[in-house]
Amino acid sequence: MRIRWILIFTLLVLASGGCSRSPNEAGDPSAKPSLSPQVSPSREPLGTYTPGFPHQGGTTQLPATMPSPLTPDLQDLIEEAKKDLAQRLTTLLTQIRFIELDEVVWPDSSLGCPQEGMAYAQVLTPGYLIRLEYGSKQYEYHGAKRGDVFFCADPTAPVPGVPDTF
User: What is the mean pLDDT of residues 62-69?
Assistant: First the structure.
């Protein structure tokens, strides 16, 4: 039943998008498309893994290349992702290294982490990509602008380009 509603919603979005002209087709290159972020119900919630031993707290140190200042909300998303990865890997929080946080545009409501058997609204969705590192391996956390981030084991790339046009 849930898949049927998702498919109906997707068809409605596609049908309504096909009936209107895009800003560029209308001859106004400065016009911005209207987006409504969609969050996939299939994402894996944070905190589903029980740690093997206690974690030591700490704050994320931002590299000099990060735009500053990050808002407290973005800093909280980074900390949330680090805690989740430490739990998944059953390691200390201090062993998880923050690489980068990028504002991106995802190609659809899967937020760059499509799950097999799921249908997603084909709408550009502004969000975040957080990269963390443990040892020599990097891990990605994805999220929409309005929501939590989640671990993505099999990520797809965001839409190329600059997301500040939204």
Answer: 46
